[in-house]
Amino acid sequence: MNLDGTERLGFLIHDAARMMRKRFEMLGSSYGLSAAQWRLLVRVVKDEGVAQARLAELLEIEPISVSRLLDRMEEGGWVERRQDAADRRVRMIFPTDKSRQAFGAIKSVAGEVFEQALAGLSQEQRQTVLLGLKTIVHNLSDGEASCQHDNEKGAAR
What we know:
Strand content: 5-15%
CATH superfamily: Winged helix-like DNA-binding domain superfamily/Winged helix DNA-binding domain
Strand order of the largest sheet: 1-3-2
Organism: Borborobacter arsenicus
CATH class: Mainly Alpha
Number of helices: 7
Pfam families: MarR_2
Number of strands: 3
Keywords: DNA-binding, Transcription, Transcription regulation
CATH topology: Arc Repressor Mutant, subunit A
Distance between the termini: 34 Å
Mean pLDDT: 87
GO molecular function: DNA binding; DNA-binding transcription factor activity
Number of domains: 1
InterPro entries: HTH_MarR-typ, Tscrpt_reg_MarR-type_CS, WH-like_DNA-bd_sf, WH_DNA-bd_sf
Shape: globular
Order of helices and strands: HHEHHEEHHH
């Protein structure tokens, strides 16, 4: 029997992520976007011109779900789809001015959620939590080309 608490690691990580998502949805809902739409918006702003299929991979959701999400976001003026010049079958996704402006708001909301999550921890404890999570991600990444935490510094997921 393990008495150091590590048997609860998965539950704690899952609960912390779920609670952060809920808090983010609560604070970010005034912009009219769901958490999934915010995640997509952040990715599109950071990876301008990303292929629609690659976007599905990065967000770890089915291509049809990304397509539907993009349909709604395109109708709302958040993103623009363009055909790839080299391969007309490929759809490239670009942010609009509206989404670029909202990106600043999302960073602010994410920062607020992160501050709430880390409240009561010293600076040293905060760094230890971050280093521990980065190490866990690295240990379990199975050689993925680039771990998302390296590409999303400060961005909400």
